[in-house]
Amino acid sequence: MIEKCKCIMCPVGCEIEIITDEKGAVIDIKGGLCDRGRNYALERMKRKAQILTTTVRLSEPVGQVRVVPVKSLEPVDVSDMRDAIRTLKEITVTPPVKAGDVIAENVLGKGITVVATRSIGHLDKETVY
Ligand code: SF4
User: Fold this and answer.
1) Fold of 2-48
2) Using an 8 Å Cβ cutoff, are 94 and 60 in contact?
């Protein structure tokens, strides 16, 4: 995808094109006469999409632990963040959970994959809290 914006860092007002892949990751930035324009475009994209981080409930507690921390593999549009977190609050995961395990796929039908960021439960002869 190509998103166009106007750099506002100086009066020249260069037109900038931000090229992203299907998941919103920046592939290239074109236009702009200097690095300030490039940085402006990157910051603009960062504000627009961020890595989602939240927790998902365990179906049964492991010691005192009742949730597993999770994150999205790719940046999520800020406008989708609240709905995505609400969706994740409705699911439970059965321990043990290993860091990197996929917890949810295609969240909101938008290809958002969410993985655990911490191991919890009985793994490799050891209980991790
Ligand atoms: S890219 Fe550089 S020259 Fe162009 S508007 Fe931004 S700051 Fe000004």
Assistant:
1) N-terminal domain of TfIIb (2.20.25)
2) yes
Overall average pLDDT of the 20-25 stretch? 82
Single pTM value for the model: 0.69
pLDDT tens, residue by residue, 92-121: 999 999 999 999 999 999 999 999 999 998
> What average pLDDT does the structure give for the chain?
91
- Write down the pLDDT at residue 123: 65
13 lines ligand 1 (CB under 6 A): yes
46 CA to centre of ligand 1 in angstroms: 19
Question: In Å, how far are 2, 30, 41, 47, 67 from 85, measured between CA atoms?
Answer: 27, 34, 27, 18, 14
Any idea where the domains of the chain sit in the sequence? Answer: 2-48, 51-128
Residue from 5, 6, 7, 43 whose mutation best tests the ligand 1 pocket (most atoms within 8 A of CB) = 7
Q: Is 33 a pocket residue for ligand 1 (Cβ < 6 Å)? A: yes
- Topology of 51-128 in CATH? CPE0013-like fold (3.10.530)
CA 23–ligand 1 middle distance (angstroms): 27
- Tracing tokens 């969706």 back to the chain, one arrives at 87
Pocket lining: 34 vs ligand 1, CB cutoff 6 Å: yes
